[in-house]
Amino acid sequence: MKTLVTVGRGGTGKSSFTALMAKSFIEAGQSPLLLVDADPDQNLAEMLGIDLKEAGKSTIADLLVSTFIEQGGTTVGVPPTQRIESRIWEKGLYESKNFDFLSVGTKWVEGCYCMPNSALKGALESLTKNYKFILVDSPAGLENLNRRITSNVNDIFDILDHSKKSQDHVRRAVKIANEVDMKFENFYLVGGYRFPAELGKQAEADLKFKYLGKIEADEQLDEYVLNGKSLLELPNNNKAYLSVKNILKTLDYL
Ligand SMILES: Nc1ncnc2c1ncn2[C@@H]1O[C@H](COP(=O)(O)OP(=O)(O)OP(=O)(O)O)[C@@H](O)[C@H]1O
Ligand SMILES: [Mg+2]
């Protein structure tokens, strides 16, 4: 079982990268696979062609509200992980032929901000052994690192763009991961679609993390995202998909 977490500044291509990793693993028969959308904006579901509502599924944040607030319970003194876990499996886990999917949802009540993430952490832990890969798509703000959704991670991929700020993001991500005592084996740099390929070696030298290559800019992918089409349905010769596949090959995952 391996947990792979994608981080990066806003709009660098994190969710697309996560969806394309999923496509790579699916096409290679590497399953079972769990995808976790830890971003409150929930773009990943759409990129995978999932409509949670239509499937009768809820985000973890919504399940917390319905379990602890609408059903009249109190959140005080109750370990949220235990109370919520079975609800997550029943109402939160979206299952499909090729992968399962969970969405963390929006932050909910003031002061209880950490609860969705800690509940997810417990749930993930109890289920870890069932999946070959767990892929987590993160918000740009690194909330999930802050709130320890993922305490044991194999690889973190930081998607870089053309701005100097994306290098600052790397430093911040590493600092936060260490501060919250998150265990990770590898921290990798990935050039996002706007990252100038020739700066890869430079980024590697400056940041002292391995640079795995660049995700090609790809109009077809952008068009799929624009039209809400599943990136899993991109043709297998799609440029962006091939670059993500190559990255996973360099890590011997494919
Ligand atoms: N390889 C690519 N080629 C062209 N456009 C891309 C590529 N990857 C992503 N994009 C476009 O960039 C935009 C942002 O992509 P995406 O949602 O994957 O980024 P993100 O980092 O997850 O964003 P956010 O921080 O908002 O969650 C989308 O409009 C998408 O179509
Ligand atoms: Mg995203």
Characterization of the model:
The model has no long low-confidence stretch (mean pLDDT 87). With 254 residues, the protein is of the alpha/beta class. 40% of the residues lie in helices and 18% in strands. Helix 8 links the parallel strand 7 and strand 8 (210-214). The chain has one domain: 3-Layer(aba) Sandwich (Rossmann fold). The protein has helices at 14-27, 44-47, 60-70, 80-92, 115-127, 143-146, 165-179, 200-207, 219-226, 239-250, and strands at 2-8, 33-37, 94-95, 100-103, 133-137, 152-160, 183-191, 210-214. Bound molecules: adenosine-5'-triphosphate and magnesium ion. Adenosine-5'-triphosphate is lined by residues 8, 10-16, 39, 41, 43, 140, 193, 215, 217-218, 221-222, 225, 240.
List the helices and strands and how they pair.
Elements: E1 2-8, H1 14-27, E2 33-37, H2 44-47, H3 60-70, H4 80-92, E3 94-95, E4 100-103, H5 115-127, E5 133-137, H6 143-146, E6 152-160, H7 165-179, E7 183-191, H8 200-207, E8 210-214, H9 219-226, H10 239-250
Parallel strand pairs: 1-5, 1-6, 2-4, 2-5, 6-7, 7-8
Antiparallel strand pairs: 3-4
Helix pairs in contact: 1-10, 3-4, 4-5
The chain binds adenosine-5'-triphosphate (ATP) and magnesium ion.
Residues 14-15, 39, 43, 137 line the site of magnesium ion.
Topology pattern, helix = H, strand = E = EHEHHHEEHEHEHEHEHH
β-strand number: 8
Mean pLDDT: 87
Cα end-to-end separation? 14 Å
Strand content: 15-25%
Q: What is the CATH superfamily classification? A: P-loop containing nucleotide triphosphate hydrolases
